[in-house]
Specification:
Order of helices and strands: HHHHHHHEEEHHHHHH
Number of strands: 3
Radius of gyration: 22 Å
Number of helices: 13
CATH superfamily of the largest domain: Intergrase catalytic core
CATH topology of the largest domain: hpI Integrase, Chain A
Strand content: under 5%
Largest sheet: 3 strands, antiparallel
Shape: elongated
C-alpha cells in the first residue's frame, strides 16, 4: 500500500472517527500528500521525515507551517503504528521548530465603532448581503467567534430571547456563547431579510447556500485593509480584539477562556500579554516620567 493511499485513509480517520474540523483534515491531508510526493520510493522513517522538514526550511517556509507539518507527521506515524501498518512509530522522535510568538492584531474601540458605523450605513440601504455582513461581524466581535464557527451556525443555534448562540468549535465541542443587544438587532434584521432557502444555515451566500469561510474572510479583509496597524487583516483579528477588549474591561481570564472555547488557559493568556503591551504603549505616550 502506497504512502499516498495511507494518507487518504488517515484523513478519513481524522474526519470520521476523531471528529477533526474540516479545515484541520484538509491541512493535514495536503501536508502529508506533499510528504508522500517528497518520499518517492523511500521508506517512511525518521530520516525521511527530517529531510522533508529540512527541505521545507530551505524553501523559506514559515516556522508555523513547518511545525504544522511535523504535527501532521507525528499524528500519521502514531496512527500507522497503532493500527499495525508499521512495526514502530517513525515520527516519535521528530522535533519541530518552535513557532515565533507574535502578538495578535488588536483594533481600538474607536476603530470598531467606525467599522460598525459603516456597516450599519450599508445595511440601512436594505441590501440583504450588507445586512448579513453586519450580523456576521457583530457575532465575530460581539461573541469572539472563530470564522469556522460563524459559517457553521444553523438557524436553530440562535436564541434571540436569551441572546445566546450554540457554537460547535474545535474537536466538535459545543458551547453556549452570549451576544449583546447590537448583535441581536443585527441578527434579527438578517433573519427578516434572509432569502427563502432550503438550507438550514444561518448565513447564506447570494445563491442561497451556506456562506463559506473564504467569503467571510474577504468581507472582513475588505473592512480592515484600510485601517492602520500591522498583522493579519482577517476574521481572527476581530476575535483577538474582542478578547483583548474583554480583559481590558476587567473580565476574568477564565471567563474569557470559556467564551473563546480554549482548551488550555495558556492559550488565552496571550491576550494578557496584548493588554500589557497596550498599557506600556499608553504609559510611554502619556506619563511625564516615561
Amino acid at each position: 500500500m502506497t504512502l499516498a493511499v495511507l494518507v487518504e485513509a488517515f484523513a478519513r480517520h481524522l474526519g470520521g472517527e476523531r471528529g477533526f474540523s474540516e479545515n484541520t483534515v484538509r491541512s493535514y491531508r495536503s501536508d502529508l500528500l506533499g510528504l508522500a510526493e517528497f518520499a518517492g520510493n523511500r521508506d517512511l522513517d525518521l530520516e525521511l521525515l527530517r529531510d522533508w522538514l529540512w527541505a521545507a526550511s530551505e524553501q523559506g517556509l514559515a516556522k508555523t507551517t513547518i511545525a504544522r507539518r511535523a504535527a501532521a507527521a507525528r499524528a500519521l506515524g502514531s496512527w500507522l503504528a497503532r493500527t499495525g501498518q508499521l512495526p514502530a512509530d517513525p515520527a516519535v522522535r521528530l522535533k519541530s521548530p518552535k513557532p515565533d510568538q507574535h502578538l495578535p492584531r488588536v483594533l481600538s474601540r474607536g476603530q470598531m465603532d467606525g467599522i460598525f458605523a459603516n456597516l450599519e450605513a450599508l445595511a440601512a440601504t436594505g441590501d440583504a448581503m450588507a445586512i448579513r455582513n453586519l450580523a456576521i461581524v457583530e457575532l465575530l466581535y460581539g461573541s469572539a467567534l472563530r470564522v469556522s464557527e460563524v459559517v457553521g451556525l444553523d438557524l436553530g443555534a440562535v436564541d434571540l430571547d436569551r441572546q445566546t448562540v450554540l457554537v460547535t468549535g474545535k474537536g466538535s465541542k459545543q458551547r453556549v456563547v452570549p451576544f449583546g443587544v447590537p448583535a441581536r438587532r443585527a441578527v434579527t434584521a438578517w433573519l427578516d431579510a434572509r432569502p427563502a432557502s432550503a438550507a438550514t444555515a444561518l448565513f447564506l451566500n447570494t445563491r442561497g447556500s451556506r456562506v463559506n469561510t473564504r467569503s467571510v474572510y474577504d468581507v472582513v479583509a475588505s473592512i480592515l485593509i484600510e485601517l492602520p496597524g500591522s498583522g493579519p487583516a482577517g476574521p481572527h483579528a476581530l476575535r483577538h480584539t474582542a478578547a483583548t477588549h474583554l480583559l481590558d474591561g476587567g473580565a476574568d481570564l477564565r471567563a474569557v477562556q470559556e467564551l473563546l472555547g480554549h482548551a488550555s488557559l495558556g492559550t488565552t493568556q496571550i491576550y494578557t500579554h496584548v493588554s500589557t503591551e497596550r498599557l506600556k504603549q499608553s504609559y510611554a505616550l502619556a506619563h511625564p516620567r516615561a
